[in-house]
Amino acid sequence: MATRRVLVTGCSSGIGLAVAVRLAKDELQRFKVVATMRDVEKRAALETAAGETLGRSLEIHQLDVCCEDSIRECVNSLPGRRLDILVSNAGMGMIGPLECQSVKCMQDVFNTNFFGLVRLVKEVLPDMKRRQSGHIVVMSSVMGIQGLLFNDVYAASKFAVEGLCESLAVQAMTFNIKMTLVEPGPVLTEFERKVYEDAQNMDLSGTDDETARIFREIYLPYSGKVFSSLGQRPEEVAEQILELIVSKDPPFRHQTNRLYTPMTAMKHADPTGRLPLDAFYRIIFQHDRLFNASLGFMRFLQKRMTKSKV
Ligand SMILES: NC(=O)c1ccc[n+]([C@@H]2O[C@H](COP(=O)([O-])OP(=O)(O)OC[C@H]3O[C@@H](n4cnc5c(N)ncnc54)[C@H](OP(=O)(O)O)[C@@H]3O)[C@@H](O)[C@H]2O)c1
């Protein structure tokens, strides 16, 4: 079977690193991985994890999703510009009260999470159309389906990603190109550390005392508990991405964490939108004990599911 070339963005850490390494170490050697990062000075973690696959099934290239020239240069450097699979993973988070965030910072989030994807797709789609084959795998989030308190701009950027892909997917089908949105819940990566560090240092003087209190005393502890109870390892997400890529008929949407599915299902269950809003409000503000007990139960289920897979 011919090897397929996969380009992954954002491989300096987290999910991108795990995906690049998992594909490079594929037992059936089905992939040549172009693992990209915007700053190749940060390559050490990937090199260590890649081990002996480095220079064989995995190459490291520079690619900044915010710079069209760097994307073009990277794709031009591939033999025949051939790319079978794109994993658009690079992204950044943002949390906090909207009135404390500058429009410039919000634009940076969109420039990376949304326009980064747009730039990549513009570069690779025409070649895939000509070849009538290809698979574009896009790292979205459960927050691309359901917004969450104090994640306003991040969720909006992932909603934009979902809207773009949902629209493009139909056209892609005409050219035999597959598209898949991967929608993780919380994943234990640098992402979480970076947004919490920003949150701890955030100047909350731009908002009222009550909003600042809700953010610090309710939202941050709530979110910390969700991550520690439901958080997946990036390797689990990478394993699922491998399965999606090798599938003959990959789904358009794939949620990586089954424990999170009931939260997103509420959105589709009630077209008025009241059900998920009321549920989130109650969970966060009114039923602290019930919330803690359910997280304990979910942590138990998560452990059992992980064990049963080993
Ligand atoms: N962790 C979660 O809970 C979670 C949940 C759902 C979805 N996601 C999504 O999963 C994806 C990966 O996140 P992660 O959790 O693995 O976080 P991470 O460890 O912080 O990785 C993010 C990666 O994106 C890179 N990146 C940022 N801006 C870039 C740019 N302009 N050009 C190229 N690369 C850039 C980062 O590079 P630097 O090292 O140079 O910053 C890093 O390699 C993101 O799209 C995120 O939205 C994460």
Please describe the structure with a list of short key phrases separated by commas or semicolons.
310 residues, Rossmann fold, 7-stranded parallel β-sheet, 7 strands, binds NADP nicotinamide-adenine-dinucleotide phosphate, alpha/beta
Please give the largest β-sheet. 7 strands, parallel
How many beta-strand elements? 7
Integer average pLDDT: 92
CATH superfamily: NAD(P)-binding Rossmann-like Domain
CATH architecture type: 3-Layer(aba) Sandwich
Helix content class: 40-55%
Overview of the structural elements:
This protein is an alpha/beta fold. The protein has helices at residues 14-24, 44-50, 68-76, 103-113, 115-131, 152-174, 190-200, 209-230, 234-246, 261-269, 274-286, 288-309, and strands at residues 4-8, 31-37, 58-62, 85-88, 134-139, 177-183, 253-255. The protein has 12 helices and 7 strands. Helix content is 54%, strand content 12%. It has a single domain, classed as Rossmann fold, CATH 3.40.50. Helix 3 packs parallel to helix 5 (115-131). 36% of the residues are buried. Bound molecules: NADP nicotinamide-adenine-dinucleotide phosphate. The site of NADP nicotinamide-adenine-dinucleotide phosphate (NAP) has 31 residues, from helix 1 and helix 7.
